[in-house]
Amino acid sequence: MLRSLARLFRPPAAAPAARVPEGERWYAIGDIHGRQDLFAALVAAIEADDRAAAPARSQVVLLGDLVDRGPDSAGVIAHARTWAAQRPVRLLAGNHEEMFLESFGDLEMLRHFLRHGGRETVLSYGIDRKTYDAMSLEEVQVAMQEIVPEEDRAFLTAAEEWIEAGDYLFVHAGINPALPLAEQRRADLLWIRERFLRHPDAYSHVVVHGHTIFEGVEDTGTRIGIDTGAYRSGRLTALVLEGSARRTIQAVAQDGAIAIERGNS
Hints:
This protein has eleven helices and eleven strands. It is α/β, with parallel strands linked by helices and 265 residues long. It has a six-stranded mixed beta sheet with strand order 3-2-1-9-10-11. A hairpin with a 2-residue loop joins strand 4 and strand 5 (168-171). It is globular and about 60 Å long.
């Protein structure tokens, strides 16, 4: 009888730790937002980390929002395109890429885009501030069509909405807790916030996301937020997943230089 009661009240076994597939190493980079200086330093650190680690099939996931707010969106896109030509790099669609791309044909979206960091993106393609300030909205749209390379637009247009890797799901903003993965809507994947962040229960995967800024990496057990606000904090984060292990590599602006910091998530 006592043994039966002991079995009845024994705490449930802990759930197995989330894992990526055996033999794979994943580097997920949070929202870059035009910080080409941090991005370049983090790319170099990731490549050095990958060379020093045990052999594995390594992949990089950019979680979206490469553009806007920071000073060099054009440089970030060019660097991401070059990197993707050299190794497996996959890009997720972010809400800022969506606004940027829609602005080429929609004046109202362009107005919205420019108010939410898009001005810095346009300036990064070589228009000087004085010229920009004198332009009408229509003139800005025409200029964008002329100065943004078609290759940049094609690269952003080809971005994926979500990526699955073992027990993990990579997505820009999050997922709608009310819908299975196969029924997720693009608007939620790129824009959702509170319904996802406040959801108390586990999902089918551990969700790795950006979009919402946290002071540090936020690991709740069911989701991992790695947008550390690079454009304003000077801290750009990469989450490294291998087997069941999780660690971080961060590029951090300090006293006019960029330092690399490593730690556990």
